[in-house]
Write a structure and sequence with these properties.
Layout lengths: L2 H4 L8 H4 L1 H5 L5 E2 L11 H13 L9 H15 L8 E4 L2 H12 L5 E4 L7 H6 L4 E4 L3 E3 L2 E3 L2 H9 L4 E5 L11 H14 L2 E5 L14 H4 L7 E5 L2 H4 L7 E5 L2 H13 L7 H13 L1 H25 L4 E3 L6 E5 L7 H12 L1 E2 L1 E2 L10 E5 L4 H20 L1
Helix pairs in contact: 4-13, 5-13, 6-12, 8-9, 14-16, 15-16
Bound molecules: pyridoxal-5'-phosphate.
């Protein structure tokens, strides 16, 4: 089978499909890395964007009131989270949002906690601003990962100023429980730590339910900001639309001033039309997507358990990213990456990138047609069997 026969993303300037040569020195790897999906956005999103295109004028644009309403409706329906439209600040991405939040609410040298292994841009986000990076590694247990609250408390006690939560957590796939988030909120109140909650994966839940951090923090005096976006949910990341929700208007003003200082904030009419349509008309599409992704996860898990028992799959409670442990094969660091590339022909995200605790791990993206997973599994199994023979 040629590449073209089974995929339409090659030669579309897709990061996942067209950067293999640049990133892995091999354009023929099977790409299951970058966190986007190999699916078209919902039809209402495409239609709303077409309408904007047909108008054909892309001059400076004011963010429509209807967009704020669409976000408000989504948060209410999906999470029973009632927000006023004036609590949202639109931004061109969650990573840029966190960058601005760090600039606004911390000073040079301040400690910022992240919970490793974690989405790798969190490291430079803290370090690029000359803040002190504090790692609060998650504890690996038989059933999944947990927060090390004892260490977290001592790090907060020692004066950390901010924690960047990843909720749900990329790459370990945890959907934090209300009790876990409440404990973070309690500690944040005691030690006066600002909580940035990155909830970009909140819509992609397979087990349990997503609890917005602000719900768990009710009753606690915590400075907090929540970062959200339709980008992962509806596969529109390149449109660069996200938003930050504040509970405290004076903190919100400070953040807005920071954005103004950096001249961030012009609306993109294609992005706002897409977001509005996704939130107003994309709910059934999302339900169908979740059911499909659950099937992908079940397939992967069953295949690995049956045919590759030395590899451990951490079944994600949320996010379409699967954290896989290859230590049972005695593979770590560069050796694991070389094996995945050269023996399996797979492009996965190197576990190392998510922090030292990711050594011996890799992250597989399962947001693709089942046939893509089947091919990924075949490639992995072939390499696995070859290794056993050697
Ligand atoms: C936890 C987390 N935050 C942020 C992002 C990226 O957000 P954006 O593209 O809006 O900057 C990702 C993408 O994978 C992510 O997993």
């Amino acid at each position: 089978m040629t590449k073209e026969a089974f995929n339409e993303r090659w030669n579309t300037n897709s990061m996942k499909w067209d950067m293999l040569e640049e990133r892995y020195n091999n354009p023929d790897l099977w790409p299951m890395w970058v966190a986007d999906m190999d699916f078209q956005a919902p039809q209402p999103v495409l239609e709303a964007m077409r309408e904007v295109l047909d108008h054909g004028i892309f001059g400076y644009h004011v963010r429509p009131k209807s967009l704020y309403k669409a976000v408000q409706g989504w948060l209410s329906r999906r999470f029973s989270w009632e927000v006023n439209t004036d609590q949202m600040v639109f931004t061109p991405g969650v990573v840029p949002s966190i960058s601005h939040l760090i600039q606004t609410f911390t000073e040079e040298g301040d400690g910022v906690i992240i919970q490793t292994p974690v989405y790798y841009p969190f490291f430079p986000l803290v370090r690029n601003h000359n803040r002190h990076l504090i790692q609060n590694p998650l504890v690996e247990t038989e059933s999944g990962y947990e927060i090390n609250f004892t260490e977290l408390e001592s790090q907060m006690k020692e004066g950390a100023r901010m924690i960047v939560l990843c909720s749900p957590h990329n790459p370990v796939g945890r959907v934090w429980t209300k009790a876990e988030l409440e404990e973070v909120a309690r500690l944040a109140e005691v030690y006066n730590v600002f909580v940035v909650s990155d909830e970009i994966h909140a819509d992609l839940i397979f087990q349990g339910e997503h609890v917005p951090f602000v719900h768990a923090a009710k009753g606690y005096q915590v400075e907090t900001a929540t970062c959200l976006a339709p980008s992962k949910t509806f596969n529109i990341a390149s449109l660069q639309l996200s938003y930050v929700v504040f509970e405290n208007s004076s903190l919100q003003r400070r953040f807005e001033n920071q954005l103004k200082t950096n001249f961030v904030g012009i609306d993109n009419p294609l992005a706002s039309a897409a977001c509005e349509a996704a939130y107003n008309e994309g709910e059934q599409w999302l339900e169908d997507l979740i059911a499909y992704l659950k099937g992908n996860i079940a397939y992967l898990k069953a295949q690995v358990a049956e045919n590759m028992p030395e590899i451990k799959v951490f079944e994600p409670e949320g996010t379409y990213l699967v954290w896989m442990d290859f230590r049972g094969l005695g593979l770590y660091g560069e050796d694991l990456q070389t094996w995945l590339r050269e023996e399996a022909g797979l492009a996965l995200n190197d576990g190392h990138m998510f922090g030292e605790a990711g050594n011996g791990f890799a992250r597989m993206n399962i947001a693709c047609p089942r046939s893509h997973i089947e091919k990924g599994v075949q490639l992995l199994q072939h390499a696995y069997e070859q290794k056993a023979v050697k």
